[in-house]
Amino acid sequence: MSGNSILGLSQKRMLNMNFQEKLTTTQRGKIAELHVATALMAQSAGRLSPFEPLSDDHGVDLVVLDKVTGAALPVQVKSWFLQVDKQVRTVQFDVQKTTHSEGQVGAVVCVVIDPETLAIVVSWVIPLRDISDVATNRPNKFALAPSRLEGSNDKYTRYRNHTLAGMGESVMELLKAIS
Fold this sequence. Notes:
Elements: H1 9-22, H2 25-43, E1 48-51, E2 62-66, E3 72-81, E4 93-96, E5 107-114, E6 119-127, H3 131-134, E7 136-137, E8 141-144, E9 160-161, H4 164-178
Parallel strand pairs: 3-5
Antiparallel strand pairs: 1-2, 2-3, 4-8, 5-6, 6-9, 7-8
Helix pairs in contact: 2-4
């Protein structure tokens, strides 16, 4: 057991396994939405105010309001939770075609979350208008499969953020474009 950790590695694996097995996809999604919302508020020093719609019928998990300009950005949040015993290079986020519209203003914010710390370790902020260009087109969905590694140079690189500040800046840029 390391000096920095109260739990040993086997205990961490047990917690992580329980986390993955016990939480539903809806619960994991809600955790990610709340993390994205609070990160955007904190990184913008309160300028951005995310709201949760009463329903997400159209794939809108948050509406992010810029309190200075009044611009509002619909956001769909997608998440991937890391597993201690499974190291992956790429992660996949699916955008259902029933919730996607080519001409729609908005963004998909994809986040990778460490379940031990509940930290967002990497994110991608992808404008809705770019989804069909960068995703793999499947019968009922668009599959986004970016590399989560910092040095990778895939077609998702321009959307990738390795800090919460970067995620906030990406959302602000999209808000500036519509205000």
